[in-house]
Amino acid sequence: MNLLTLEGIHHKFDYPLFSDVNLELNQKESIAITGVSGSGKSTLLHIASTFLKPHSGKVKILGLDVYEDSSSMLKIRRNDIAIIFQSHYLFNALNAKENLELSSIISKKKIDKRLLESLKIDDLINRNISELSGGQKQRFSIARALIKKPKIIFADEPTGNLDHKTASSVMNYLFEYIEDNNAVLFLVTHDEKIATKCKYNLNF
């Protein structure tokens, strides 16, 4: 089943950024977007994830042209996609559990204990955010994103602030997730070793 399609995507700022980008991702597939800084990797992710409209071209998620149907776009954002950034963006005023509960309430999905166990954060659930290491914060950020059981994961340098061992563990989990949940992974990364694990690679 096709989950994400980009057709003839063109975008520019004060200068041309990229043009005629085409890709299609089906269940259990992954793509790594690589390239030099400023080449447009994160911009393409923002376009594909419905948060930046391209100058031309189409983005289809679950077969729907999201930039032509705003009501479908909002529903897809709420239920079908998740975005993971390099920075964790957890709420410091809430503890780890409360951060997850907020996502649970918004998505109307229960917190899956198996998810926390897989990310090895189940014993940290009652910690304050300030008590967590950078790797632990990022894993909670990933858990928060995955609570809704998204069909498409957009990850923008999700391991950029992690040590090699933690980065490998996090990526292994994301690949396991898309396999077990018939989902897809759209990954922006500078790490060539991680990129080679994806089915497709697009270099800018």
UniProtKB/TrEMBL annotation:
InterPro entries: AAA+_ATPase, ABC_transporter-like_ATP-bd, ABC_transporter-like_CS, P-loop_NTPase
Lineage: superkingdom: Bacteria
Positions of the ABC transporter domain: 1-202
Keyword rRNA-binding in annotation: no
The keyword Chaperone belongs to this UniProt entry's keyword annotation: no
Keywords: ATP-binding, Nucleotide-binding
MF GO annotations: ATP binding; ATP hydrolysis activity
Protein's UniProt name: ABC transporter ATP-binding protein
Organism per entry: uncultured Campylobacterales bacterium
